[in-house]
Amino acid sequence: WILLDNILVNQLFGVDLGLGMTVVTFDWTQILWIGSPLMYPWWAEVHIFFGFILFFWIITLILYYTNTWDLAYFPLNNSNSYDRYGNVYNVLAVLSASNRFNLTAYENYSPLYLPMTYAMTYILAFALSTCVLMHMILYHGRSLLNGVKKIRVEQDDIHAKLMCNYPEVPDWWYLVCFFGFFLLMVVVVEVWHMAVPVWASVALPTLYVLPSGFIFTMTGQGITLNLLAQIIPGTLMAGDPVANMIFKAYSVQTLMESTSFVQDLKLGHYIKVPPRATFLVQFVGTLLASFIQIGVKQWMFNNIPDIYTPNQPSFLTCPHNEV
């Protein structure tokens, strides 16, 4: 409401297309966007706060106002992607009739440009994908090695002693679940001819489950594979966006569900819920949610007019799926 026509002021202090530098909110829903500050250690919150200021309020502005990658011609902060004419990117213009990437059409149309904040998100995601592995090796490598050797590195605390009264989940329960759902994944890929390398979509979350678990346990912030799960299939299955998204869904959801399951086991450990009960509740809940979620989404697509369009009356615009 101040200096509405001033571009610089709106870029710095705007909350829609700007960086929101003056926004202070007491809306708990907004505060909880990255997790409850009442539950996470203070040093993790400090890292998040100053990391945000450094990368998005300082480095992003430097890159933007120096017109790095020609991105100063586009909005500073937005969830859309753009073409060289400054319009929202028309994805259909670079797809063939069979929904495959058409390189000739892409070269004739335009490269894809991202707003600078979105580009910074990609930069940080690439950095994160390697630094979490090195962090685990440097800071937790010895603990992992001792765990593999089954060497006890510390005494059981009171929680571990009390939980010894409950039988652990047998390994074969996990193996049956893994191989059962892995076979279902193979069947889906082969029957519908999706050409997705299932081994790679499983290997990626397997590689990151321990680093993500360490970070999530200490900070409450989970690690996602969004970028790697796009780049790797984009290289292995070049030109096939459907297979790319299926690969991403398998990889990202596998890691997210793994860390969520470990989180529930940890909670059960502290409140003394038997591990087998936690396992069964998670298994049944996940199985039911798989069918219910797909059913609800299919109903929404069939019955809600203009869903996933910018002017949808109820704001069901699916902003997280635009890029």
TrEMBL record:
Stretches that traverse the bilayer: 12-34, 46-66, 119-139, 172-195, 207-228, 277-296
Similarity section: Belongs to the oligopeptide OPT transporter family.
BP terms from Gene Ontology: protein transport
Location(s), subcellular: Membrane
GO cellular component: membrane
UniProt xrefs under PANTHER family: ISP4 LIKE PROTEIN
Pfam families according to UniProt: OPT
InterPro entries hit by this protein: Oligpept_transpt, OPT
Species this chain originates from: Suillus plorans
MF terms (GO), sorted A to Z: oligopeptide transmembrane transporter activity
Keyword terms: Membrane, Peptide transport, Protein transport, Transmembrane, Transmembrane helix, Transport
Top-level taxon: Eukaryota
Annotated protein name in UniProt: OPT oligopeptide transporter protein-domain-containing protein
Membrane topology: Multi-pass membrane protein
